[in-house]
Amino acid sequence: MTAIDRPLVTRRASRRALVGGIPIGGGAPIVVQSMTNTDTADVAATVAQVRELADAGSELVRITINTSEAAAAVSEIRRRLDDLGCTAPLIGDFHYNGHKLLTEQPACAQALAKFRINPGNVGKGSKRDSQFATLIEFAIEYDKPVRIGVNWGSLDQALLARMMDDNARAATPADADGVMREALVASALESAQQAETLGLAPDRIILSCKVSSVQDLIAVYGGLARRCDYPLHLGLTEAGMGSKGIVASTAAMAILLQQGIGDTLRVSLTPEPNGDRTREVIVAQELLQTMGLRSFTPMVTACPGCGRTTSTYFQELAQRIQTFLRTSMPAWRARYPGVEAMHVAVMGCVVNGPGESKLANLGISLPGTGETPVAPVYVDGRKTVTLKGERIAEEFERIVEDYVRTTYGGDARSPQPASADRTIAIKAIA
Questions:
Q1: How far apart are CA 270 and CA 277, in angstroms?
Q2: Cβ contacts of residue 123 below 8 Å, gap of 6+?
Q3: Along the 430 residues of the chain, how does pLDDT read in single tens digits?
Q4: Is residue 414 packed enough to be buried (19+ CB in 10 Å), middle (13-18) or exposed (0-12)?
Q5: Exposed, middle or buried, 5 (CB in 10 Å: 0-12/13-18/19+)?
Q6: From edge to edge, which strands make up the β-sheet containing 423-425?
Q7: Are 146 and 114 a contacting pair, CB within 8 Å?
Q8: Strand 362-365 relative to strand 375-379: parallel, antiparallel, unpaired?
Q9: C-alpha closest to that of 367 among 379, 381, 377, 382
């Protein structure tokens, strides 16, 4: 008899960098990052959004530092977050004038856990090297790691022109797109080497090369991964809004993650007007969790629905349970270690419902169209009770809570009906 093995993900070997005490690379778990879209000079708004992102599960949060007022606000932002018990490390995003801002506000450098520098806009001509050096010198003085983040929308034009000229003189010139991809990688590697020459330790450097095309991202990171051992930050830049941004980011990063490439990532979604910024965090977590690379929040399996499930009840219950699990996690995370790996199934009919429910830690199989209006509940593969009535949702939530307390917290289990085959009304559950 033959068997089909699951493919193993072998992480790319890399150095390990510490960002505010969080390890990046070197075999450490892949870290989820996000970015605020507030005016950093607005301390209250920025603190509130950083906390929202951190509560949603963002382990690193990047903030824009583009003005003197923004740079001056960073220390106060850090102080207020610490007072609130929010320890998420802050990353300073510098473009064009970072060297001036840190010179004016050295306390900003102290409050940040990492700098992000884009070598394409750190300076032009003769000023580029000195301005890049200033940023690196601050990183060395305050012992901060640096992400050298190349972006093809702001690629170093002098480097690109030089490489295009060299390519034109070649006996067999490469296509222009291929040269641009090579220029992205060269920009990151040359800047990293320059930082090391200035005295920044190799284990204080993280690289990224972001593009907005799925196939180009896969190609660029494949080339970058083969040519260095720095930790790599993944992200499809300008991914877009809604389903397009989610699909594009997932399509690109899932392939790289399966190849073992990537040590930290961000899903760069364009939020809808007044939309929830935390959505990018949830998508990043779900990407890693559905691939089996990390666990963040109990996952819900739910069927898509068909002509057997003309009622919307199972959809409403699946949504309710998924929301319940995610909103419960901030409190559960500390009290119930391991709960993030819990699996819950909410199924809509008898075709796959019992089977999926038995495979989950907790499962409920709701009645489909024309089926007996009862809902069997399975706990660790065993049918424990069959629910019916108008309060199935509330009572299933109670069963979930009881399972979490007893399985991950060691509490005594609440009394359950004596017979697993007994069909009872919801009001009869203790």
A1: 9
A2: 96, 99, 129, 130, 131, 132
A3: 899 999 899 999 999 999 999 999 999 999 999 999 999 999 999 999 999 999 999 999 999 999 999 999 999 999 999 999 999 999 999 999 999 999 999 999 999 999 999 999 998 888 999 999 999 999 999 999 999 999 999 999 999 999 999 999 999 999 999 999 999 999 999 999 999 999 999 999 999 999 999 999 999 999 999 999 999 999 999 999 999 999 999 999 999 999 999 999 999 999 988 889 999 999 999 999 999 999 999 999 999 999 999 888 889 999 999 999 999 998 998 899 999 999 999 999 999 999 999 999 999 999 999 998 899 999 999 999 999 988 999 999 999 999 999 999 987 766 654 334 444 343 333 3
A4: middle
A5: exposed
A6: 299-302, 343-347, 362-365, 375-379, 382-388, 423-425
A7: yes
A8: antiparallel
A9: 377
If 0-12 CB within 10 Å is exposed, 13-18 middle and 19+ buried, where does residue 388 land? middle
Structure tokens at 240: 């877009």
Nearest to 46 by CA among 19, 81, 20: 81
Whether this model's pTM surpasses 0.90: yes
CA distances from 346 to 27, 161, 341, 405 (A): 35, 56, 16, 20
Positive or negative, the CA dihedral 85, 91, 96, 99 is: positive
